[in-house]
Structure formats: structure tokens, C-alpha cells
């Protein structure tokens, strides 16, 4: 079961965690973005560069992700779409998005968007901290533990 990364917004420090995990567990890792970036040489890690455009990377992932796969993304509408297909999502802050909690997250995201569109100033997300990185690594490790190891 591969890991898909919405790489346009994935912090470099989390990509490094993902690179190490893909090698250690021999799991396929696809990083999808509309720009080029460096990845380590590995049979398990692939960079996919899509065309520029609104939600092009999201559509690429959504069309290919399958039940049981894992998505790394902060994009709640994308997470909702892949969770509906049976995949799971981990945000950069290490929050696991599942069928049990995705509708609440989507409702909150839509409310915040409505507020922003009506002129209400909302603060952006807090910077990624050490606790967030640890939570991300823990969630990733828990997902990996449940996967059969490649031979």
C-alpha cells in the first residue's frame, strides 16, 4: 500500500521523515507536485511532476489512490475525497483523518473559508513545531506497523 504526498505543501523536514520510512519499510512513496524537487535515489521513492493549475496535483492523487493507501496532505477537500475511497490521511501536524472525523474537519474548513470570504481575518496555521513533527512521525509509524512488509 503506497504513500501519496501532496508535495507542493509538504514541509521538507516531513519529506525527510517519509524518505527514511519508505527505505526502511520498503514502501512505495509518490510525491506529487507541480514543480520539480530533489528526492533521494531509491526504488521506493518517485517524484511526479504534474502541470501547473488549480488542483491538478490533487486530481492526480485522487484518481490513483486506492483503499488502504495513505495520503500526506493538509488539503481537507482532497483528504475527504480519498477517505471516501477507503484511504487514510495524515496532516503535517500529525492528525489522522479517517471516516470518523473527516466530515467534522471538512465542515470546519468550509466555515473558515466562508468567514475569510466575508472579510473576517483569521490567523493562519501555527508553524510546525517539534511536537507536531513527533506526532507526524508517530502516526506514520502506526500506519506502517499495520502494513505487510515488502519482501
TrEMBL record:
Stored InterPro entries: UPF0178
NCBIfam families: PRK00124.1 (NF001095)
HAMAP family reported for this sequence: UPF0178 (MF_00489)
Annotated family: Belongs to the UPF0178 family.
PANTHER family in the cross-refs: UPF0178 PROTEIN YAII
Protein name (record): UPF0178 protein J2W69_002197
Organism: Rheinheimera soli
Amino acid at each position: 500500500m503506497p504513500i501519496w504526498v501532496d508535495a507542493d505543501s509538504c514541509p521538507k523536514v516531513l519529506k525527510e521523515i517519509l524518505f527514511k520510512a519508505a527505505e526502511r519499510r520498503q514502501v512505495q512513496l509518490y510525491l506529487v507536485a507541480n514543480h520539480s524537487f530533489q528526492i533521494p535515489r531509491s526504488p521506493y521513492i518517485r517524484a511526479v511532476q504534474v502541470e501547473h493549475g488549480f488542483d491538478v496535483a490533487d486530481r492526480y492523487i485522487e484518481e490513483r489512490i486506492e483503499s488502504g493507501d495513505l495520503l500526506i496532505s493538509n488539503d481537507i477537500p482532497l483528504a475527504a475525497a480519498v477517505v471516501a475511497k477507503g484511504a487514510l490521511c495524515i496532516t503535517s501536524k500529525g492528525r489522522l483523518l479517517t471516516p470518523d472525523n473527516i466530515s467534522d474537519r471538512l465542515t470546519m474548513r468550509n466555515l473558515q473559508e466562508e468567514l475569510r470570504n466575508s472579510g473576517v481575518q483569521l490567523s493562519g496555521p501555527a508553524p510546525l513545531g517539534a511536537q507536531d513533527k513527533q506526532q507526524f512521525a508517530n502516526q506514520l509509524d502506526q500506519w506502517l506497523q499495520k502494513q505487510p512488509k515488502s519482501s
